[in-house]
From TrEMBL:
<keyword id="KW-0853">WD repeat</keyword>
<feature type="signal peptide">
    <location>
        <begin position="1"/>
        <end position="18"/>
    </location>
</feature>
<keyword id="KW-0732">Signal</keyword>
<dbReference type="InterPro" id="IPR015943">
    <property type="entry name" value="WD40/YVTN_repeat-like_dom_sf"/>
</dbReference>
<dbReference type="InterPro" id="IPR045111">
    <property type="entry name" value="Vps41/Vps8"/>
</dbReference>
<dbReference type="InterPro" id="IPR056939">
    <property type="entry name" value="Znf_RING_Vps8"/>
</dbReference>
<feature type="repeat" description="WD">
    <location>
        <begin position="130"/>
        <end position="171"/>
    </location>
</feature>
<keyword id="KW-0862">Zinc</keyword>
<dbReference type="GO" id="GO:0008270">
    <property type="term" value="F:zinc ion binding"/>
</dbReference>
<dbReference type="GO" id="GO:0030897">
    <property type="term" value="C:HOPS complex"/>
</dbReference>
<dbReference type="InterPro" id="IPR001841">
    <property type="entry name" value="Znf_RING"/>
</dbReference>
<feature type="domain" description="RING-type">
    <location>
        <begin position="1116"/>
        <end position="1168"/>
    </location>
</feature>
<dbReference type="Pfam" id="PF23412">
    <property type="entry name" value="zf_RING_Vps8"/>
</dbReference>
<dbReference type="GO" id="GO:0006623">
    <property type="term" value="P:protein targeting to vacuole"/>
</dbReference>
<dbReference type="Pfam" id="PF12816">
    <property type="entry name" value="TPR_Vps8"/>
</dbReference>
<dbReference type="GO" id="GO:0005769">
    <property type="term" value="C:early endosome"/>
</dbReference>
<dbReference type="GO" id="GO:0033263">
    <property type="term" value="C:CORVET complex"/>
</dbReference>
Amino acid sequence: MSCLQSVLSVMFTELLLFFQTDDEEESFVLEDPSLLNIDNIDTHSYDTSSLASSDSGDRTHLKRKKKLPDFFSLHGSVVRLSLLKGISAQIVSAAVSAASSLIAVGTSHGLALIFDPNQALRLCLGSTAVGAQYGAISALSINNDCSRLLCGFAKGQITMWDLANGKLLRSITDAHPPGTAILHIKFTDDPTLAICNDSGGSVFELSFKRVMGVRTCESRCLFSGSKGEVCCIEPLHAKTELRDHPITQYSLLAMASLTKILVIGLKPSLKVWMTFPYGRMDPSSVPLLAWHFVAIQNSVNPMLAFCRGDVVHFLLVKRDDSGAIHVTKQKQLHLRYDLINFTWINSRTVVLLDSVEKLHVIDRQTQEELETIEISEVQLVYNSSHFKSLATGGNVSQALALVGEKACYQSISSCGGQIFYLGTKSVHVMMIRSWRERVDHLLKQDCLTEALALAWSFHEGKAKAVVGLSGDVSKRKAVIADRMVEILFHYADRTLKKCPDQGKIQVMEQHFQDMVPVIVDYCLLLQRTDLLFSQIYDKLSENSVAKGVFLECLEPYILSDKLMGMTAQVMKDLLLHYQDKNLMEDMEACIVHMDITSLDIQQVVHLCWENHLYDAMIYVYNSGMNDFISPMEKLFKVIAPPLNAGKSLTGTEYFNWFLSFYHSCCLAGRAYPLGDIPEDLVPLVKNQVFEFLIRLHSAEASADEEVYPYVRTLLHFDTREFLNVLALTFEDFKNDKQAVEYQQRIVDILLKVMVENSDFTPSQVGCLFTFLARQLAKPNNTLFVNRTLFDQVLEFLCSPDDDSRHSERQQVLLELLQAGGVVQFEENRLIPMAEKAEFYQICEFMYEREHLYDKIIDCYLRDPVRKEEVFNYIHNILSIPGYSAKEKQSVWQKAMKHIEELLLLSPNKAADLIATHFNDQIEGIIKNLQDMLQISPCVTEKFIELLCHYSPDQVLETLQVLEFYRLEETIQITQKHLLHEASSYLLEKKGDIHGAFLVMLEDIEDTLVKTIALCQRNSHSLNQQQRESLTMQVLNNMAAFIALPSILQRILQDPVYGRGKLGEIQGLVLGMLDTFNYEQTLLETTTNLLNHDLHWSLCNLRASITRGLNPKQDYCCICLQQYKRRQEMAGEIIVFSCGHLYHSLCLLSKECGIETKGQMRWTCYKCNSSNKGGKLSENFSELKKGNGASLAQVRFMGGSVPDSESLLDSQQIQAFDQLCRLYRGTSRLALLTELSRTHGGEKHGLLNVSQGDPALNSVFQNENFQLHLAPPPLTEE
């Protein structure tokens, strides 16, 4: 028994699952071919997450996790994973494969079991004897019509079976090299053509033929494993309706090797259409291939998905008119995990399996992850043993064996929208849930809100992976809407059922506030208000709290105009509920958004009057009865008594605003408070409102009522707004004769009410005349206003005796002028009156009209409110183009005239202005302002003292800027306030450096003491290196300004170091320091002497080589011709320092010149030649060595001078060498060294140095010793 269990366990790890693919997918089309009898399917779904399942070899590394709680995303549960009980019970020692109408099972004993869709065993192909010879079945494939089955074995053999009668048709042993396992074997769409891939990485084409009744098989190698091992192949399969697609005639085959992807065409001849290298990746990742036809841009073409690792590439394959195939890259899918399987469910949805056995359902177009499922309980079977070719001795490469560790190609396959997974003890099938199943699944989980949201996404066509919907859009929406209605009824029942019976009323309200709005929302989205206000409302009315919440939750939909009407009963209940809850403002906002036909007008009007809901009342009058006057009459009755009694408008302010706004809407043709008045009623409404406004008295006027009460009331509340409304109305009535009469009538009434009444403020009167000025300034004006009224207004506004509301009166007059009222006044009278009233903005307005920009500067300077704006004004005039030069000059002169005043007004702005526009006049300005800039030192010192008290941080910066203060007094002030840094600055400025140092030392002494104490306290806890680091920081800071020898000498002179071992060498160290100081002084002196000598020598050299030479005669000393007369050829004139002159050609003829390093060196013929033989040659030898007796200058006879160079030429080098020989002797450094040696030995007596022979060792005993005294340096006059 134990032996049998051992065999069975091995077989479980080698189970293989194969399915014939028959993809079928269209958007919103039911995709459920019912491959299996669902009666034998365990519908338990694996919607949780756990870790990987067992491998075909070692399971010790795998861990199990408990199921996590189920979760639902926006898409709900998209797929269902179920156990195939019927097959799983019969394959205790078998492997599984399936086709569209059959399920084939391959076992490790070489048997092939065939099951029907009901999971009943139909055929058992092969025998255990064959299995012992061929090994386990490693690959299976069924052709399109389910008539043939190909079996690949672990030892390399291939068999073909007739699935109709179970007869063996072919046994193929020579299709590929022996000793390799069959990894893949796949039929193409051509039933006579199949492809196999072995563990050697080679791919072969199998062609089946029948000649003279004999079945044969011809094999052709498509790809050799020696060029790169192929570990995955995938032929393109087309569905029946796509068999005529033009690309199917090529019989495309995709192959994935360890380094690249290849797409080849098998027909009509073998051709490689595409290669695609992987790039860098994990060598253990599994190459994956999958074909599917997709619809893009109104055409259906195959798309190849391939990946290796965590990036999925999509390639769209098309055929053009010429017959060529083109491959186009599509958008890549980047993942956070490595894949071991890729499967298309349909053209929009793919299922990915990662390396930890998690399934990821992905929408290809949006790349959104719809769902994640763990399938660790499946215990997926891996094909590692076949990739390692264990049955034939394991003769495979390490790279292929590494890939095989995660290979599960033969354990997963798809068929008709279903995916089958082979486990060690079971077979599972995964399929996409239909839309109804997905909704019902959420309902089973009691997730009603999520179910409604998912159903609505189906309704709007926004859901992903949709299956089970067919027909046109309207039909699909109707089906989904019916299902949503059922859910809503269930939701309402559940809401009432789950209501807490006990507890606080707030708990019940919160429960219904969470639930009821969902029902209302989806009823309105579905436009099923009939259900909302009948059956659902009746259900919720059973609970008073639910009813109240329902009525209140209608408000946002009413205000957003999503709910315009409701039944009379619901409207009545709504009004009563809001009245009981005292939510009158909310009720009024709802009434004005409701359809008037759904309101009980009598009830609403009565309710509105009782609760002062004037907006709702006007809405009912206007919309329900087209009455726009009655509301105004009633409202004026409310506010008339307090106004007549002279009471404050505080209590009636709302009514005044309300009336103003209502009149604005009526006169502008807008409905109050929302919408527009019907176009055919607009003229009538405007006329009615005008007639109402110009009534002499109200309907029930008292004896003391003033005339035109309605106009007077509106003007008192908001004059500007009322006049603006009239202006807009006048624009609309410009072509209406009756309206023109109304306009004149209104204007006359306004003048009568406001001019003859002293109750109105200057601002209100100004608003009236501004309104009139704008109307009179229009080109098509028909109004008439007496001009004397404008003069009266001008005198009223410019009255110098009235100081009240000065800025208001000025602003009113300015608006009046800007509105066109300037034509109503005499300018010669207006400007003096404005100046007298100090209306400087009015003056500016008038001066700007006359382009008198310089006078505007006076307006700014006299206006206390706008003084500082003068700087921006001057800058703009002088900078911005558009002003004439004369205008800019006048402004410039005016600014110069007032420069002192500007400086006093704002020194910073004045300085910026001067630097920008008066840069040439700065010296003159400063000179003129010197008297003003003189400040008494007492004032400056007082300022500094105040600064020390209130802003001590700014004292030092201020002292560095100020000049007019006395040092002694200021030092006393800063010392009094303990401002050490400022005191140190003043002492330094005074010249007392020591005092400044002591002040700063006081400031840091306390800190220094504390720092030293800190080091002392912690020295025992620090190691030697840390203590040295702290000490060296102090010494380094000292060494930056004090010489280290001085520090060392100061330390050694301390009496503390005079005892002990250090005291023994104290004298020696001090002596070394003295010697160092002496030698340092001697070295500095020597360096100065050498530098002085070098400077003097170079000055002499420069003077000698730059001094001009004066020839003794004007003729050549060789040819005796004047240098100017020899014109036969251009040449050079050579002049030597001895005064002799030669032609260069003459010197060359006498061999007095030699070329050295590209330059000519010359020697004087007369000075260096002699009748004695041999001297000339000696001179030439010296010339070659660079020695010469005299300097030479070269000039061109033609007058052109060659370009000078910064380097010394040959003559200058010759002169420098001569100078060096002249002063050659014992160096001063040697003299000083000798002197210091003697002097040091006598002074210190540290070493008894033997001097040796004086004649040999002393430079002073040398017979050639000469002392050259340096002449005093030359000074330039």
